[in-house]
Amino acid sequence: MDDIQQQLQVRLKEHGLELDERQLEQFELYFQELVSWNEKMNLTGITEREQVYTKHFYDSVSLAFYSDMNKVEKLADIGSGAGFPGIPLKICFPHMKLTIIDSLNKRIGFLQHVVDTLGLTEVELIHGRAEELGRKEGYRDSYDLVTARAVAKLAVLNEFCLPFVRKGGMFAAMKGGDPREEMKEAEFSFNQLRGRVKAVHPFQLPVEESARHIILIQKFDKTPHKYPRKPGTPLKTPLVQ
Question: How confident is the model at residue 59 (pLDDT cuts 50, 70, 90)?
Fold first, then answer.
C-alpha cells in the first residue's frame, strides 16, 4: 500500500469505513482502467492519480457518510458516466445490488470491463434513457437509494431519479456549490414527484477544500402515472412553476 491508498484508507476510517486489501486493490485497478480507457474515449478530465482518488473515489464514497449504506439493498446510479458514485460505493459495500443506467453505450462497455476486471457481482449495467426505464416494472418504485452526481439541475434530476425510488426510499443528489437556488426552483417538482427534502449535508473535499453538498430527498408516495415524461422532455421543459 502506498501513500495515496493509505490516505484514502485513513480518510474513510475517520467516517467509520474500513477498507481491506482486496478493496484497495479494486480501487487501484479501477484507477488504472479509467486512465487507460480515457486515452481512447472521453471518460474524465481528471487523470492524475491523487486527484482521481480524492475527486472521484473519496467524493463518491462520501454519500456513505450521510446514508446508512448497510441498510441499502438496491442502489441505482443514474447517468453514471465513468461509474461515479456507483462503482466506488459497490467496492465499499459489496452486499448491495447495483444498477447503473447511462445513455452512452461506449461508457457501458467500459463499465462492463471494470466490473469484470474488479470481480464485482450483482451489478446490472443498462444502456438506456432514465425516462424510459423509470416507467418499466422492476425499475419503477423499486430502489432503496437512487443517486446522481452533478448530472443536471435538481428540477430535472428529480424527474430522472425519483421514479426509481421505492416509497419510503431516498434519492441522493450529489452537488458541488451552494444548491439553495436549485432547491427553490425544484420545489414544484418535489411535490409532483412525491419527494420531500430530508436533509442537506455540506462538506469539503480533503486538501483542496472544494465545496460539496449532498441533498437527501425522501419519497413519500409512488410516482404518479404521468411521470417521467417522454425522453428529452424533462431537460427541455423542467417541472418548474
Answer: very high
> Model-level pTM?
0.96
Q: Work out the average pLDDT over 142-147.
A: 98
Q: What is the DSSP string of 13-72?
A: HTTT----HHHHHHHHHHHHHHHHHHTTS---S--SHHHIIIIIIIHHHGGGGTS-GGG-
How far is the C-alpha of 64 from the C-alpha of 69, rounded, in Å?
6
Angle at 130 (CA atoms; ends 129, 132), nearest 5 degrees = 70
Residues 6+ apart with CB under 8 A from 125: 100, 102, 108, 111, 112, 115
User: Which pLDDT tens digit goes with each residue over 96-114?
Assistant: 999 999 999 999 999 999 9
Contact 92, 62 (CB under 8 A): no
Specify the pLDDT at position 104: 93
Strands of the sheet with 211-219, listed across from one edge:
123-127, 97-102, 74-78, 143-149, 165-175, 211-219, 195-204
At residue 152, the pLDDT reads 85
- Paired strand residues for 213: 175, 202
Q: Running DSSP on this structure, what letter comes out for residue 150?
A: S
What are 116's three cell numbers?
A: 469484470
Is-cis flag, bond preceding 234, omega within 30?
no
